[in-house]
Amino acid sequence: MGTQHVHAGWRAQDAHGAVVPPVYSSSAYAHPSHARLKALFARECDGFAYARSGNPTTRILEERVTALEGGAGAIAVASGQAATTIALCSLLAPGTHLVASERLYGGTTEFLDDTLADLSVATTTVDPWDLDAWAQAIRPETRVFLLESIANPGAELVDLDAVCALAHEHDIAVVVDSTLASPALYRPGDHGADLIVHSATKYLAGHGTTIAGLIVDTGRFDPRRRPERWPRLTAPNPRFGVTFADEYDQGCSGLLGYARAKYMTDFGATLPGQSAHTVLLGIETLDLRMERISAAAAELADWLREQDDVARVNHPSSPDRRDAEIAARDFPRGTSGVFSIDLEGGEGAVEAFCDALELFTLAVNLGDVRSLVCHPATTTHCHLTPAQRAACGVGDGTVRLTIGLEDLVDLREDLARGLRAARRVRAQGIVAV
Ligand SMILES: Cc1ncc(COP(=O)(O)O)c(C=O)c1O
């Protein structure tokens, strides 16, 4: 795997022998003839015309992530949010239905409840561990199951093989947001997923400099099996003059072609070449980072579990977790650097804890080489209802930690400082409980 992280998609093959993938920074691409540009617009040949639909540096990133996920193809887009939006809009026509895990990044839940609902797509949310709940939520118009392979912020893991087997019995496509896992820890396609979405802003980039997203087609989804369920892919498209599902013969379901031609281009949610370049640089060290970060997070979770001020540690290694078996079976290299803790004393204790930290940065990103901390109830999950927050394990006292590459001894010392501050505030009785 490490080899692919460094080499997939680029072999020093340009005119100058650039060792590192070069940044293409051009809004448009010149063509040798009228006939060639016409053929490109007619989808009769491959290439670049205008950067809103693709860029050569971005193409290298797409090929690299396709290789890492063992997929059939990928498109890189402007953000992780754009990846989810474009993937779901491509699969879900008005009047269709989606079943989603209730343990999702808050921005995704907001998108489902608000924007997707505006587009007349209904959502049912379920406890991702309850296979009967997934089954009971299925309607004739259900087209997609959506879940996170490692859920944000409590790092819950799902039995993806079982969920995919159920979905495929009903010709439902499974979309997995694998942002927290990254392909270095887990490949959803190996467990049956049809599409994978990534916020490449996080672990793929790893350096906290870039917003980016990817949609990967694992090659499993074939709309031609039940063409009447996916007419936008299986019927001739009058706007583009092609039937997108015919592109299955090139190893892809046609969905990516449709997503790129229609939604990425119409929404203008393009990834610039400069951003693709910085994500590519990050991926070179992904394999190394993920193993070390996961091990550090597991050690800190163990240590935090012994601290009196911590009511609960939400990490797959916790003895009371339902996903311990899944962690052992499907995540042999660890479960990333993200997990959460519940502090005694609610938001008042959280405020004292966060403000006392000197090494952890108070910021709403994750997957950086720097350790980060945030309070999901008032930030990433603040627009959810209290019931939705409770369903995804976010309470007033919940703090999300994202472990970086600093020395463990320093991180432990900083967390101890935060816990002491939280205890002092609690002792003074000035906390909101
Ligand atoms: C699991 C997950 N998916 C998607 C996103 C959205 O990604 P982006 O911020 O790159 O749009 C986030 C952002 O935090 C996330 O945590």
From TrEMBL:
Cofactors: pyridoxal 5'-phosphate
Signal peptide range in chain numbering: none
Keyword Acyltransferase: no
Name of one Pfam family that matches: Cys_Met_Meta_PP
Gene3D superfamilies named among the record's database cross-references: Aspartate Aminotransferase, domain 1, Type I PLP-dependent aspartate aminotransferase-like (Major domain)
Coiled-coil parts of chain: none
InterPro entries registered for this protein in UniProt: Cys/Met-Metab_PyrdxlP-dep_enz (IPR000277), Cys_met_metab_PP (IPR054542), OAc-hSer/O-AcSer_sulfhydrylase (IPR006235), PyrdxlP-dep_Trfase (IPR015424), PyrdxlP-dep_Trfase_major (IPR015421), PyrdxlP-dep_Trfase_small (IPR015422)
CDD domains: CGS_like (cd00614)
GO molecular function, one term: transaminase activity
UniProt entry keywords in alphabetical sequence: Aminotransferase, Pyridoxal phosphate, Transferase
PANTHER family hit by this protein: HOMOCYSTEINE/CYSTEINE SYNTHASE (PTHR43797), HOMOCYSTEINE_CYSTEINE SYNTHASE (PTHR43797:SF2)
Family listed: Belongs to the trans-sulfuration enzymes family.
Name the UniProt record assigns to this protein: Aminotransferase class I/II-fold pyridoxal phosphate-dependent enzyme
Organism: Brachybacterium huguangmaarense
